[in-house]
Give the backbone structure.
Amino acid sequence: MKTIIVDDERLARKELTNLLKDFPEVEIIDECDNVDDAIEKINTLQPDFVFLDIQMPGRDGFSLLEELEYAPLVVFVTAYDEYAIKAFEVNALDYLLKPIQPERLKDTLEKIKSQLKDINLQSTDNKLGIQDRVFVKDGDKCWFVQLKDVPLFESEGNYVRVYFDNNKPLILKSLNNLGDKLNENFFFRANRKHIINLSWIENVENWFNGGLMVTLKNKMKIELSRRQATKLREMRSL
């Protein structure tokens, strides 16, 4: 399991490195002491997971996640309870309070092993599947969202609205760009405005001009053109 440690404090990085010596399955491939360096290293080296300090000079760990192109599993590390609570609210894989306790670290690594196993089973390419988590930020609010919980992506100009739970944040990304990153075994381009999660389909009925009307489990209805309806039928033998 490859990891990068991101923390502006050298002693904190050294402490975590020493603790990880008891876990030979973990390979530390790099360390970073600032957000800009970490963004470059994470996107380039693509670790399985990252230990990420939340509070750092200049920009914090949340701003780092907002700019990443590659999305590893993330464990927040912090000395402050208030940040740990916020990390938990955005649904990070886990968070560790400084000073890190060996038993707590062991529990975290077990979670990582389980998550990586699920991810490896679901996909053999680098595209995002339903077990993957993405970081979503809209204004002051931010979330880690597991893609299995996202029924729909909807284009709004240069933005994409992400539907999950009772939330509908906007992210600055085109639907085409997003579609290139999603695994087509799980996500389907229904029309020029929508990408749907195939596992959320509740009902499919014939529609005008050879199209289809798809009803999702959240009761939203999405119309498929004849071309995309044909493609869905071929994929799902409808």
Helices lie at 10-20, 35-45, 61-67, 81-89, 102-122, 175-181, 226-236. The longest helix spans residues 102-122. The longest strand covers residues 27-32.
